[in-house]
């Protein structure tokens, strides 16, 4: 196989986030670091599970329920139910409205609010990132990619509608995402008529970059190259895959929300770093859940990565050191939020905690 060269122009790529112990430091130092971080991680988990103060200060469950309901209404209104081509629209609606936690839209709306914008200004973008996310799932599940037949607890799009329609469903959702963001009538009347068009253009450019050959698609390509390979995948390449394949769209969700909310460049960059940390955290936790949970608990096929001989963090680091790395990423994400109003930042803080402690 040819030598690996990360995309030089990519702004998504960042320096390795793994702690020195995981990268091969001395055995004694690694053991001491591991023991310390594991105790700290267990304490954090116990505190998060037991503390009633979190619920009284900020009702995260209610917040996510309200955001998901609002996003679902926007998604439902975005695709006609009966207009031709009926088979395509039916498949689009099936994939898009099949459920899901709507984490990416919630991040987009919360980022808009934390910089002082109204969530309604970012709702078209929140719907758009969910369309892009759904497109990536539909394509990722295809037989030529990860070949899966279960998604969000339901048969995957190609199982129900056939491969050709599933491919076109993903294509149509991607196109719709940009159309939805660009339409003037997608936005409420109270936006700044002078500044908003430029913000929309900037946000569309950010989304396009994070899902193309500098982002999600780049990560998918390298992931495919490594699947089943006899070559030992180094940690920096695994990090590259997940910073692009998974973290890039989470980054886009946060950054475009901040742009549309009128955030300063400094605020946007702090939120970008926050998003990269939780994006990689999302994948580390996903890898852990894949080997610790059942298909019924996950709503998708459990053990799929192991069966397809994919390189994952538990495979490369072991389960406990993967959990240690998750703790570091969560700490990094929290640090980036320290400069914001803590009341406004509460949704982003709780979303980071949710990603760290989720069970599916």
From TrEMBL:
Protein name listed in UniProt: Geranylgeranyl pyrophosphate synthase
Cellular-component GO terms for this entry: cytoplasm
CC cofactor: Mg(2+)
PROSITE patterns given in the database record: POLYPRENYL_SYNTHASE_1, POLYPRENYL_SYNTHASE_2
Coiled coil feature spans: 316-343
Annotated NCBIfam families: FPPsyn
Pfam families xref list: polyprenyl_synt (PF00348)
Listed GO biological process terms: isoprenoid biosynthetic process
Any one GO MF annotation of this record: geranylgeranyl diphosphate synthase activity
Organism for this UniProt entry: Oryza meyeriana var. granulata
């Amino acid at each position: 196989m040819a030598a690996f060269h990360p995309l030089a122009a990519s702004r998504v790529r960042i320096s390795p986030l793994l702690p020195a112990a995981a990268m091969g430091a001395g055995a004694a130092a690694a053991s001491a670091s591991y023991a310390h971080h594991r105790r700290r991680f267990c304490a954090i988990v116990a505190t998060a599970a037991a503390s009633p103060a979190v619920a009284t200060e900020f009702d995260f469950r209610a917040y996510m329920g309200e955001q998901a309901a609002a996003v679902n209404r926007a998604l439902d209104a975005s695709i006609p139910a009966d207009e031709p081509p009926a088979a395509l629209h039916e498949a689009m609606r099936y994939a898009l409205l099949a459920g899901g936690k709507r984490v990416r839209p919630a991040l987009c709306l919360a980022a808009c609010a934390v910089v002082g914008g109204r969530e309604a200004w970012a709702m078209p973008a929140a719907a758009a990132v969910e369309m892009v996310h759904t497109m990536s799932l539909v394509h990722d599940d295809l037989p030529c990619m990860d070949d899966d037949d279960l998604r969000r607890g339901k048969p995957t799009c190609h199982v129900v509608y056939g491969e050709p329609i599933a491919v076109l469903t993903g294509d149509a959702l991607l196109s719709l995402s940009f159309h939805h963001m660009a339409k003037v009538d997608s936005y409420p009347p109270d936006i700044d008529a002078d500044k908003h068009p430029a913000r929309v253009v900037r946000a569309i450019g950010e989304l396009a970059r994070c899902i193309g050959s500098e982002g999600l698609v780049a990560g998918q390509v390298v992931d495919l190259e490594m699947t089943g390979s006899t070559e030992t995948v180094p940690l920096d390449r695994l990090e590259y895959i997940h910073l692009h394949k998974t973290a890039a769209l989470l980054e886009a969700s946060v950054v475009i929300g901040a742009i549309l909310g009128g955030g300063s460049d400094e605020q946007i960059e702090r939120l970008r770093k926050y998003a990269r940390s939780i994006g990689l955290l999302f994948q580390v936790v996903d890898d852990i859940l894949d080997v610790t949970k059942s298909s019924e608990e996950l709503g998708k096929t459990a053990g799929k990565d192991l069966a397809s001989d994919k390189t994952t963090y538990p495979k490369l680091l072991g389960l406990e050191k993967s959990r240690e790395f998750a703790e570091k990423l969560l700490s990094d994400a929290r640090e980036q939020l320290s400069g914001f109003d803590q009341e406004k930042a509460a949704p982003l803080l709780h979303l980071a905690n949710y990603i760290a402690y989720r069970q599916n």
